[in-house]
Amino acid sequence: LKVEALEKLSKVSIKEELQELRVKYLGKKGPLTEILRGMGSLSAEERPLIGQVANDVRESIEQLVNEKLAYYEQQDTENRLRSETIDVTLAGRPSSQGAVHPLNKIVQEIEDIFIGMGYSIVEGPEVEQDYYNFEALNLPKDHPARDMQDSFYITEELLLRTQTSPIQVRTMEKMKGQPIKIISPGKVYRRDDDDVTHSHQFTQIEGLVVGRDIRMSDLKGTLLQFVQQLYGPDSQIRMRPSFFPFTEPSVELDVSCYYCKGAGCRTCKNTGWIEILGAGMVHPRVLEMAGYDPKEWSGFAFGMGPERVAMLKYGIDDIRHFYTNDVRFLNQFVHL
Ligand code: PHE
């Protein structure tokens, strides 16, 4: 039995076979168990002899089985280690990374330019009182200039702000009697049909400076500095007379269209100039209503649409690209 078992065991080549043989020789129904169970019927002299031999045989078989088991276990571990090794030289899967939206980027860029000139940033509510959005900006209830900005009214006295100019008034009320130098970025809403240049919701950045001796030349110098930082040091500006109820005089500001000189320029239609913002000297009535004596104080204000600024800077042909979040559009601005 011993010889047979050891021979079979030594020929074993897979773990399963080893288990089978172990059960066969050492299991409850195996020959050794049977012999040991039959000990009771043996004589007292035979018992230790047979017992000795049977135990001997069992020990030899167990020893070989255990050796083999250990061998297989080691093999298993080695296999597992081998299959789980990581190839550090393998090329990685690219992970997609988010980026700042081009509109936020241009807003930040504009903010940085003005922060560099000593301005602070002030925000205000998007749901605004008629008083701040219109009345305190010299646009009384039935003023025809309200037609310039079709509005979304919530109640008779509340609307979605059509411009960031109400922040001018709110800031002046708060700062009463102190100089002001702020810009206010934010969303604005108008009842426009959406097309390539119009959106019912867009962004504005308003600027306001109030002081003792603020002049039109300060406005011009500020805007020239801003434009040259944003569009390049060779950029020129041009002011054209315009109208806003809250500024007097009012101007529209054109920037030289240096990036598309000559024929075929769609952005400036070959005029060499492109309008980017509205501005003017704060109307004395606006100063007065907010608690600044116009005999002592003067100021300038300007307002621009960052979408438009970005469209001109990057040659974007449809304002709706900013809101539809098509990654093919967005990806073009990742590295700017
Ligand atoms: N708020 C004006 C607009 O939306 C722009 C503007 C702001 C003009 C400040 C002059 C001064 O059209």
Automatic annotation (TrEMBL):
<keyword id="KW-0030">Aminoacyl-tRNA synthetase</keyword>
<comment type="similarity">
    <text>Belongs to the class-II aminoacyl-tRNA synthetase family. Phe-tRNA synthetase alpha subunit type 1 subfamily.</text>
</comment>
<dbReference type="GO" id="GO:0000287">
    <property type="term" value="F:magnesium ion binding"/>
</dbReference>
<protein>
    <recommendedName>
        <fullName>Phenylalanine--tRNA ligase alpha subunit</fullName>
        <ecNumber>6.1.1.20</ecNumber>
    </recommendedName>
</protein>
<keyword id="KW-0460">Magnesium</keyword>
<dbReference type="InterPro" id="IPR002319">
    <property type="entry name" value="Phenylalanyl-tRNA_Synthase"/>
</dbReference>
<dbReference type="GO" id="GO:0016740">
    <property type="term" value="F:transferase activity"/>
</dbReference>
<dbReference type="GO" id="GO:0005737">
    <property type="term" value="C:cytoplasm"/>
</dbReference>
<dbReference type="GO" id="GO:0140096">
    <property type="term" value="F:catalytic activity, acting on a protein"/>
</dbReference>
<dbReference type="Pfam" id="PF01409">
    <property type="entry name" value="tRNA-synt_2d"/>
</dbReference>
<dbReference type="InterPro" id="IPR004188">
    <property type="entry name" value="Phe-tRNA_ligase_II_N"/>
</dbReference>
<dbReference type="Pfam" id="PF02912">
    <property type="entry name" value="Phe_tRNA-synt_N"/>
</dbReference>
<dbReference type="InterPro" id="IPR004529">
    <property type="entry name" value="Phe-tRNA-synth_IIc_asu"/>
</dbReference>
<keyword id="KW-0963">Cytoplasm</keyword>
<feature type="domain" description="Aminoacyl-transfer RNA synthetases class-II family profile">
    <location>
        <begin position="104"/>
        <end position="312"/>
    </location>
</feature>
<dbReference type="InterPro" id="IPR010978">
    <property type="entry name" value="tRNA-bd_arm"/>
</dbReference>
<keyword id="KW-0547">Nucleotide-binding</keyword>
<dbReference type="GO" id="GO:0000049">
    <property type="term" value="F:tRNA binding"/>
</dbReference>
<feature type="binding site">
    <location>
        <position position="248"/>
    </location>
    <ligand>
        <name>Mg(2+)</name>
    </ligand>
</feature>
<dbReference type="InterPro" id="IPR006195">
    <property type="entry name" value="aa-tRNA-synth_II"/>
</dbReference>
<keyword id="KW-0436">Ligase</keyword>
<keyword id="KW-0479">Metal-binding</keyword>
<dbReference type="InterPro" id="IPR022911">
    <property type="entry name" value="Phe_tRNA_ligase_alpha1_bac"/>
</dbReference>
<dbReference type="InterPro" id="IPR045864">
    <property type="entry name" value="aa-tRNA-synth_II/BPL/LPL"/>
</dbReference>
<dbReference type="GO" id="GO:0006432">
    <property type="term" value="P:phenylalanyl-tRNA aminoacylation"/>
</dbReference>
<keyword id="KW-0648">Protein biosynthesis</keyword>
<keyword id="KW-0067">ATP-binding</keyword>
<dbReference type="GO" id="GO:0005524">
    <property type="term" value="F:ATP binding"/>
</dbReference>
<comment type="subunit">
    <text>Tetramer of two alpha and two beta subunits.</text>
</comment>
<dbReference type="GO" id="GO:0004826">
    <property type="term" value="F:phenylalanine-tRNA ligase activity"/>
</dbReference>
